[in-house]
Write a structure and sequence with these properties.
Helices cover 29% and strands 38% of the residues. The protein is an alpha+beta fold. It has a single domain (2-87), classed as K homology (KH) domain (GMP Synthetase, Chain A, domain 3). A three-stranded mixed β-sheet has the order 1-2-3, covered by helices on one side.
């Protein structure tokens, strides 16, 4: 998922090197009918963007999941919650 979002950001000329882009991921594992099952994945993306690029970053974020192979592989059985947190402007 992070790679797909990075690709969408790159298309908008928003760089995603390690010092500007990171993700924190958590998930829930629940007992469903006596089977342990991943039921939810939560991803918080942190991105530092140049002034004036905030709108483009949000546009990329709003559409990346529909093109993400990993997300589309599990979206029917695992709930995905994602959030983009824009931090102080880069460079």
């Amino acid at each position: 998922m992070t790679g797909t979002l990075a690709r969408f950001l790159a298309e908008k000329q928003i760089p995603t090197p390690e010092d500007l882009y990171r993700a924190e991921v958590e998930g829930d594992i629940e007992n469903v009918n006596n089977v342990l099952k991943i039921t939810q994945i939560r991803v918080k993306y942190y991105l530092k963007v140049a002034a004036g690029k905030e709108k483009e970053a949000r546009e990329a974020f709003s559409s990346y999941l529909t093109s993400c192979p990993a997300a589309q592989s599990v979206i029917g059985c695992i709930q995905i919650k994602d959030d983009l947190i824009l931090e102080g402007a880069a460079g």
